[in-house]
Write a structure and sequence with these properties.
Blueprint: E1 3-9, E2 13-19, E3 24-29, E4 35-41, E5 44-45, H1 51-55, E6 67-68, E7 79-82, E8 85-88, E9 101-106, E10 111-118, H2 121-126, E11 131-140, E12 143-152, E13 163-164, E14 184-187, E15 192-195, E16 209-210
Antiparallel strand pairs: 1-2, 2-3, 3-4, 4-5, 6-13, 7-8, 9-10, 10-11, 11-12, 14-15, 14-16
C-alpha cells in the first residue's frame, strides 16, 4: 500500500492525503477551521462544498466537514451564564472558524494528519476555559476515521459538546437510508416525536431531527 501526504498552496494551505492503491483522496485546510473540504473515492466526490462561500473568510463554510465546538446547535439568544458572568457564544461555537495547527503527519500504515486547536484570549472571552483539541484524520481504503481528543486544562469542570456538520454529495436523496439505533426521533421544528425506521419524508422542505433516545 502507498500512502502520501502533500501540500497545495491555494487560497489556503491545503493538505492532500492519498491512498494510491484504493484511489482515495482527502483534502484538509487547517487555517479554515481544520475542515475537510474534499473526500473522493475512485474519483467520486463524497462531500459537497460551496466554493464561493469557502473563498470568503467572513462567511461560515457551507460544505465539507466543519467541526462544532464547544457547542452543537445554538443557545437561546446565543448567550449563557457561568460563575455569575454573561457570555455570548454563537451557533456551533468557534472551532470551525479558527486556524488549527498541524502537529503530526504519517504515511506508514495510513495517510494520517493530526491537527490541534488551543484556547487563547479570544476563545476565553466567549468560553472561559483552557483546553486543547487534538483531531487526527486517517484515510485508508474507502474508510475515513476521525479520532478526537479533548483535554481540559482548566482547574474546574469544563462543559462542552462536540460534533461535525458533514455535507454529503447526493444525486438521489430518495435512495438514502440511515442506520441510527433509535425507534423514534424529535422533530426540532414542531417539538413532536415521530416513529423512525431508517427513512425520512424527503418531500419536506426541511428535515431537522434529533435522536435523544439512542438505544
Amino acid at each position: 500500500m502507498t500512502f502520501t501526504i502533500t501540500q497545495n498552496q491555494n487560497q489556503y494551505l491545503t493538505y492532500c492525503l492519498k491512498d494510491e492503491e484504493a484511489d482515495a483522496y482527502l483534502e484538509v485546510v487547517p487555517a479554515r477551521g481544520g475542515i475537510i473540504t474534499r473526500w473522493q473515492i475512485c474519483g467520486e466526490d463524497i462531500l459537497y462544498l460551496d466554493t464561493e462561500r469557502f473563498k470568503d473568510p467572513n462567511l461560515s463554510v457551507r460544505g465539507g466537514v466543519p467541526i462544532l465546538f464547544p457547542i452543537c446547535g445554538n443557545l437561546p439568544d446565543n448567550s449563557y451564564q457561568h460563575q455569575g458572568r454573561n457570555y455570548s457564544l454563537k451557533q456551533h461555537g468557534f472551532a470551525r472558524d479558527l486556524p488549527w495547527q498541524v502537529s503530526k503527519q504519517s504515511s506508514e500504515t495510513a495517510a494520517s494528519l493530526t491537527l490541534e486547536l488551543n484556547s487563547n484570549p479570544a476563545t476565553r472571552q466567549v468560553y472561559p476555559f483552557d483546553f486543547q483539541l487534538i483531531f487526527t484524520y486517517q484515510l485508508q481504503g474507502n474508510s475515513l476515521k476521525i479520532h478526537q481528543k479533548v483535554i481540559n486544562l482548566s482547574p474546574e469542570r469544563m462543559p462542552f459538546s462536540i460534533g461535525f456538520h458533514p455535507y454529503f454529495q447526493v444525486t438521489d436523496k430518495t435512495g438514502l437510508s440511515f442506520d441510527i439505533p433509535s425507534s423514534q426521533y424529535l422533530d426540532q421544528r414542531t417539538k413532536t416525536f415521530h416513529s423512525y425506521s431508517g427513512n425520512f419524508d424527503f418531500n419536506l422542505e426541511e428535515i431537522d431531527a434529533a435522536f435523544p433516545q439512542i438505544t
